[in-house]
Specification:
- With 176 residues, the protein is an alpha/beta fold.
- It has a single domain, classed as Nucleotidyltransferase, domain 5.
- It is built from five helices and five strands, in the order βββαβαβααα.
- Strands 3-2-1-4-5 form a five-stranded mixed β-sheet.
- β4, α2 and β5 form a beta-alpha-beta unit.
- The relative contact order is 0.20.
Length: 176
């Protein structure tokens, strides 16, 4: 499975593509950051993010897109920008009919490090180790995008079984 991980942000939107399946060694395909100028208006920044993500989708042809679920922060401006960048990533994937999965930061941290409270350095170190890289990806947004892709590859089989069970249950109607 090839997954594009997206760590959303208005100034730096981390992107990373990972190939692999659960229980097998993973391979980094590409990693980077879509950048927009901090002094640009938000609509132009969103267009820049859209163009960047579309380029990544065109070039790497992922089978799924994993996006960090926006969580409440103290700074409303920051969370709004993150949510807007996240929506752009989801829209780009949806246009292509790609499945989109949202993972919380603690889910991603737990998946790659074993602890939902891991710090950025621990996550970057584990991404480096899991993908057998020479050095941690920089900036941290890039490492976080790879961690999202890894998390999704490892969680996708369980999520698919859960979705199938829900569909089967709803098709049978209420249990009496």
């Amino acid at each position: 499975m090839r997954v594009l991980g997206v760590d959303p942000g208005l100034t730096r939107c981390g992107v990373g593509v990972v190939d692999g399946t659960a229980g097998r060694p993973l391979r980094m395909v590409a990693v980077g950051v879509v950048r927009t100028p901090a002094d640009a208006e938000v609509p132009q920044r969103l267009v820049g993010i859209e163009r960047g993500i579309e380029e990544w989708l065109d070039e790497h042809r992922p089978e799924a897109v994993a996006v960090e679920r926006v969580f409440s922060q103290h700074n409303v401006r920051t969370v709004m920008g993150t949510a807007q960048a996240s929506a752009v990533a989801m829209l780009c994937a949806a246009r292509r009919g790609l499945p989109v999965a949202l993972h919380t930061p603690s889910e991603v941290k737990a998946a790659v490090s074993g602890s939902g409270r891991a710090d950025k350095a621990q996550v970057a170190a584990m991404v480096t180790r899991l993908l057998r890289l020479d050095a941690p990806p920089r900036p941290a947004d890039a490492a976080d995008a790879l961690a999202l892709a890894i998390c999704h590859i490892w969680r996708a089989p369980a999520l698919n079984r859960l979705q199938q069970a829900r569909r089967l249950h709803s098709a049978k109607g209420p249990v009496r």
